[in-house]
Design a protein that fits this description.
With 487 residues, the protein is of the alpha+beta class. Helix content is 50%, strand content 18%. The chain has 10 helices and 12 strands. Adenosine-5'-diphosphate binds next to α8 and α10. It is found in: Cell membrane.
Length: 487
């Protein structure tokens, strides 16, 4: 059956209660229990034994149903004589001391109480240890109740000592805990003060940023206003100077000019034209910045636009080694956009390509991207190129790269700034890719249906201005064709 019976004690008289107690202690020690567990088993057994002796005696059998469990079965001699458990102080006490107490009746009708206690670190009870145990128990049966009382007192003292030590330990842990709590509380207070300070700092910083933003916005607005006003003011006198210079040059043979005079007046004329170009570009930029350019969206035929651009670009090429290649657009042939603004941007890019290319090809082409929702128009040249550091700066106002060809090329440094703004206004973007010495490619990407891609698909530079089908085209009619071409 696997149940190892360890020892048995007859319970006949009161003295046997002590023997049972002692037996319990010894057996528990022999199977691996220690300290308090020994006392628990011994006390539980003496409690139950007392009841059993009072009800006419019985028998205690110790067994090990498994190595980790000690079972003590106490059987009464008399039939049905053990008091019901609720009246038995002994059974109640035993219940608190061991892991399990069960009451039953055996086949002959004797009351049986079974106590069970788990063994935390069991010790194998082999034959040698078993007979040793029995020998020791047999010898101690003759001990007097006084001896057992002494042992019990010693156990009690040990338990008291242990309880005292536990209490001390508890007090120490409590004190430690309290100290830790103080520390945690102090740390928490410190952190929350720090957090509060930081929060206050952040709030102040935000307020400052808002204020700076407002200042910047104001500054930018007043710059735009200034540019617009000054450009308007300058245009009239510059136009007068140009008119007068042309009048002086075109004298219909009356009072002919000397070569020197003609040369001087031509100089006035070309300087006036430069000035007018600058003023016009400033005006364009101011308009784009202040959002006053409202595009007029319409169907634009790319092939027609490319032919026009070819016509206006070819005359600008003065170097024999430079050729213009215009790829017939086949994949995207039309798009919805503002044709005038797009022409303006592309003329600007083409005229730059001509200015900064000494030999090689300048290619105008269009390809669909993003599943045909966007058209990418590219102006590629094999010119001097732009260094990586300058690639972002060329889109800034008045920025011109210092270098070869720059002095001979006329320009204001405003063309690309304006072109990018226009590309954004049209719902797209303008980018550059370039390798110094090899050439540059400027890419204008525009939505084919005239609507910028939704905010969700937006990548890179944001499109802030909704083009919308603007009611009126705000190009200044008095300027007729004052674009960046022909520089
Ligand atoms: P502008 O041509 O009137 O000077 P832009 O804003 O159009 O002004 O161009 C700014 C500068 O960018 C140019 O002065 C030139 O230094 C550089 N740049 C523009 N396009 C090219 C190009 N295709 N190749 C090399 N450099 C270029």
């Amino acid at each position: 059956m696997g149940v190892q019976e360890v020892y048995a004690i007859e319970l006949g008289s009161e003295v046997d209660v002590f023997a049972a107690r002692q037996g319990g202690r010894e057996v528990a020690a022999a199977v691996g229990m220690d300290g308090q567990d020994l006392v628990r088993v011994a006390t539980a057994l003496s409690e139950v034994s007392r009841d059993v002796v009072a009800s006419g005696g019985g028998r205690v059998v110790f067994s090990l149903p498994s190595p980790g469990l000690l079972r003590v079965v106490v059987t009464c001699n008399a039939v049905d004589r053990l008091p019901p458990s609720e009246d038995s102080a002994g059974l109640a006490a035993a219940g608190r001391l061991v892991d399990g107490v069960t009451e039953s009746t055996d086949a002959a009708g004797h009351a049986v109480v079974t106590l069970e206690k788990r063994i935390t670190s069991p010790v194998l009870l082999d034959d040698v240890r078993g007979s040793d145990l029995r020998r020791r128990l047999a010898a101690s049966v003759h001990r007097s109740p006084l001896d057992e009382l002494r042992t019990q007192n010693a156990e009690l003292l040990a338990a008291l000592d242990e309880a005292q030590a536990r209490k001390q330990e508890l007090l120490r842990v409590n004190a430690e805990l309290e100290e830790t709590n103080h520390g945690v509380l102090a740390l928490y207070n410190e952190l929350s003060t720090e957090l509060e300070d930081t929060n206050r700092g952040v709030v102040a910083l935000y307020a400052e940023i808002d204020q700076k933003n407002a200042l910047l916005r104001e500054a930018s607005e007043s710059k735009t206003r200034f540019l617009r006003n000054i450009s308007h003011e300058l245009r009239t006198p510059v136009n007068s100077v140009l008119g007068l210079a042309r009048l002086l040059l075109d004298r219909n043979g009356v009072d002919p000019l000397t070569d020197e005079q003609r040369h001087q007046i031509e100089f006035i004329n070309s300087s006036g034209e430069d000035l007018l170009r600058l003023v016009n570009e400033l005006l364009d930029l101011a308009k784009a910045e202040s959002g006053r350019i409202e595009p007029v969206i319409d169907d634009v035929d790319l092939a027609t636009l490319f032919r026009e651009l070819e016509g206006t670009t070819r005359p600008l090429i003065t170097r024999d080694d430079v050729r213009l290649v215009v790829d017939e657009p086949t994949e995207v042939t039309r798009l919805r956009t503002d044709g005038t603004l797009l022409r303006h941007v592309l003329r600007n890019l083409l005229s730059n390509a001509v200015k900064f290319t000494e030999h090689g090809a300048i290619t105008l082409a269009a390809t669909p991207v993003e599943d045909g929702r966007v058209v990418r128009v590219s102006v590629r040249d094999e010119g001097i190129g732009i260094s990586p550091e300058d690639q972002a700066k060329v889109f800034e106002e008045f920025y011109q790269v210092r270098g070869r060809l720059q002095t001979s090329a006329k320009g204001t440094g405003l063309g690309l700034a304006f072109a990018r703004r226009v590309a954004v206004i049209l719902g797209g973007d303008l980018r550059v890719q370039s390798t110094p010495g090899k050439g540059s490619t400027f890419l204008v990407e525009l939505p084919v249906d005239g609507r910028p891609p939704s905010a969700a698909d937006e990548t890179g530079s944001a499109t802030t201005t909704e083009p919308g089908p603007g009611p009126a085209h705000h190009h200044d009619p008095s300027r007729g064709g004052q674009e960046n071409d022909g520089r």
